[in-house]
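User: Structure tokens for both sequences below?

Assistant:
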Amino acid sequence: PQNTPEWLEKKQSKIGASEIAAVVKSFVPFDELVKILGEKTAHSFMDEPLFITGYSIYHKVARGYSIPPLDDELSLYGHAMEKYFDWLMQDNETFEFVGSEDFIERPDISPYVVCSPDGYAYSKKEIVDVNGRPIQGNELVWEKKTVSLFKSKKEEMNLRGLPWQYIFQNQYQMMCCDMLGGIISSLVLVHDTPFIRGRLTSLCEVGDFAKIKDMFQPKIDHYVYARLEPIQEVIRLALHNFEEAIKTDTPPEINLTV
């Protein structure tokens, strides 16, 4: 189960879904990214700032380096709002959402592949993804995101869609869970301040979700994605190169732009 000592120990020596974008940036040469993803997508992805580097992940796995956690304020808020997601999605017309504490290992893909999905969504009717691609079956892996208003505006999420790092994360989860589709639910607060986040965290802790909806009306958008083979190909290449780097004790160069 997630959030247990055993889970933390396993997580320390593996690559989680939130880390895969950084591994791709550090372990796939740019010319390979361009060849597989196309020049525009490769440049857009490489220009995105990440919270962690592939260099740090390499040393986490190879040397036991401890990656600094998120600030307590953001971490507590993010975990608390996951409960709000579950409550709010109870009567969704299109999907049945189910939260999860699963921890999945896929040594058949790579000895380092693991993920901790937030949950799963079961479609009640035929669906297509954000690009109009039909998704076979009705089961999707679910990722919940609490996104700051500043980050949403800075990255123009309403116009450009989600950051590539979120898409890479969800595609990695699909690979891990052996699913053909995924859904990312993005929550943005209109009044995003430390005080408001603290109030929301407290209300989640006591289960007063209706008050959250009435008082703050957080905006939630759902982004559905079919399996994107070019991105999954890049992920597999990154994992292969990461394995070779571990075997040969060759850390990547530090990339200060990520």
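Moving on to the next sequence.
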Amino acid sequence: MTGVVEKVFDTEQVNDKFRKRTLVVNDMQDKYPQVISFQCVQDKVDLLDLLGEGQEVEVSFNIRGREWTSPQGDVKYFNTLEAWKISVKEAAPMKTPETDDMPF
């Protein structure tokens, strides 16, 4: 998925062996833009260190799902988009006038 970084959250240390971090990306579609939340876990949280709001990125991710049963016996299902690779798209190079096009 390609889009623009909306927000990079701080790392959450869930317990002594598990950490996670959230990245929010806007796909910048014309009429109905989608704001998508991705999760990075363990060593992948470091992928977000150099990202800032407004950067265009391409996110490679896996869809994860799980089932959870509450203490009352209710079953719920959760989905997570787990990012494993994030590439910053380079800005288009600025045009510079050619020497031949200059009026002097």
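User: Anything stand out in the second?

Assistant: The beta strands are 2-8, 12-15, 18-26, 35-41, 56-69, 75-88.
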